[in-house]
Amino acid sequence: MNITSVTFHFDDSNGAGGVYAPSNVNAGDTNFAIADPVGSAPFAFVTDGLSFSGNDLVVSITRAGLGCFLAKWHLMPHRYSGA
């Protein structure tokens, strides 16, 4: 399996109910820092530049406050062209 990016959809209520944007995501051997967006709306974060090839992609999310909420995520496989 070849993965070129992962999209994460997080909630960010600016601490209301203990929910904060995470500080970073680790996907495979790559760390992606997440800047806390302005406002308290849910947001998407894309791990652009991911180059993973293998069977098991390990992902970890580091919380910045009391907790974080991941609503959903999508893997974007590399598409091969040709026969």
SSE layout and pairings?
Layout: E1 2-11, E2 24-27, E3 30-33, E4 43-46, E5 52-53, E6 59-62, E7 69-77
Antiparallel strand pairs: 1-4, 1-5, 1-7, 2-3, 2-6
Q: Termini, distance in Å?
A: 17 Å
In terms of quaternary structure, the protein is single chain
Count of folded domains: 1
Helix proportion of residues, in percent?
A: under 10%
Q: Total number of β-strand segments? A: 7
Shape designation: elongated
Largest sheet: 4 strands, antiparallel
Rg calculated over all Cα atoms: 14 Å
Estimate the mean pLDDT confidence: 88
The DSSP helix count reads: 0
Q: How would you describe what is shown here?
A:
It contains no helices and seven strands. Helices cover 0% and strands 45% of the residues. With 83 residues, it is an all-beta fold. It has one domain. The model has no long low-confidence stretch (mean pLDDT 88).
Brief digest:
This protein is mainly β and 83 residues long. It has strands spanning 2-11, 24-27, 30-33, 43-46, 52-53, 59-62, 69-77. The chain has one domain.
Descriptive key words:
four-stranded antiparallel beta sheet, elongated, single chain, 83 residues, mainly beta
